[in-house]
Amino acid sequence: MWETSMKGLVSLIRKSTPSSFTYICEKNGDSLSDKMDELACFAPGMLALGSLGYGPGDREKMLTLAEEIYWRCRR
């Protein structure tokens, strides 16, 4: 279930321009909204902890994604 959920989450990831911040789109029905609320800032911790269940290559991808979203939340 975790891997299925993470595939869904990754499908919502976008990068802003020109700042190139990584963020999670909000999904409402079939449409995506280019905004991220403060509750999405729990995702980096969730991704970092969940990365422990992956092999080295996928673990690194999840940790990198967690770090990118974390930086967006800090800004």
TrEMBL record:
Q: Give disulfide pairs as residue numbers.
A: 41-73
Q: Which SUPFAM superfamilies match?
A: Seven-hairpin glycosidases
Cofactor(s) named in the record: Ca(2+)
What keywords would UniProt list here? Disulfide bond, Hydrolase
GO CC terms: endoplasmic reticulum; Golgi membrane
One MF term in GO for this entry? calcium ion binding
Q: Which chain regions cross the lipid bilayer? A: none
Report the Pfam families cross-referenced here: Glyco_hydro_47
Q: Please give a single GO biological process term from the UniProt record.
A: carbohydrate metabolic process
Pathway listed for it is:
Protein modification; protein glycosylation
Methyltransferase keyword on record: no
Name the domain of life this protein comes from: Eukaryota
Question: Does the keyword field hold Transcription regulation?
Answer: no
The record's similarity note reads: Belongs to the glycosyl hydrolase 47 family.
- Specify the protein name: Alpha-1,2-Mannosidase
